[in-house]
Design goal:
single chain, about 180 residues, alpha+beta, Rossmann fold, Alpha-Beta Plaits, 2 domains, 5-stranded antiparallel beta sheet, two-stranded parallel sheet, 9 strands, about 30% strand
């Protein structure tokens, strides 16, 4: 099956189409072939080809996808640009911050304009930030200006499967 998948993909791209439509392209491929496919699709995308992939294995799409389209019950329920750092469902960026005295810093962080929510998870802060109101850079500057000793500051990458699950759950809840 893996060799047939490879031949099918080669046949699809040999004429350098502007749009490539693939259904479960990694099905039947071994890990090395999946990696090669991912690299190929990324290269094709970077060279201007539009690639539409239908897949149930969402983790494989994360390497080369730039747009997510979700169809549920025959309806398009979500269409959005993907940003590796953005929780696109609500246009907030999740940022992991390590600071000394985590609980003592919560009140100061909650007061920063653009901070929607702050969670403590395993002695780390997860800050949900609306970058339309406060950029990551500005947040870091504000934390330092508040004399908060920042030990670690990183944007959390969005997991495509989690985003899909949230999108479908929101759709189903809206149907009730």
């Amino acid at each position: 099956r893996g060799m047939r998948q490879r031949v099918g993909i080669a046949q699809a791209i040999v004429h350098n189409p502007r749009v490539l439509l693939l259904d479960e392209p990694a099905s039947g491929l071994d890990p090395e072939a999946r990696h090669s496919l991912s690299q190929l699709l990324l290269e094709l995308r970077n060279n201007g080809m539009t690639i539409i992939v239908s897949s149930h294995i969402l983790a494989e799409l994360e390497d080369y996808s730039s747009v997510m389209l979700v169809i549920q019950d025959g309806k398009m329920i979500e269409h959005r640009l993907l940003n590796s750092a953005s929780t696109s469902t609500n246009n907030y960026t999740n940022i992991e911050v390590h600071v000394a005295n985590v609980t003592q810093q919560l009140s100061a962080i909650h007061l920063i304009n653009g901070v929607k929510e702050v969670q403590i998870i395993d002695h780390k802060l997860i800050i949900q930030l609306n970058e339309a109101l406060c950029t990551k850079h500005a947040l870091l500057q504000l934390l330092i200006a508040e004399n908060i000793a920042v030990e670690y500051f990183a944007v959390l990458k969005t997991n495509l499967q989690d985003e899909y699950i949230k999108t479908v759950a929101n759709y189903k809840n809206a149907q009730l």
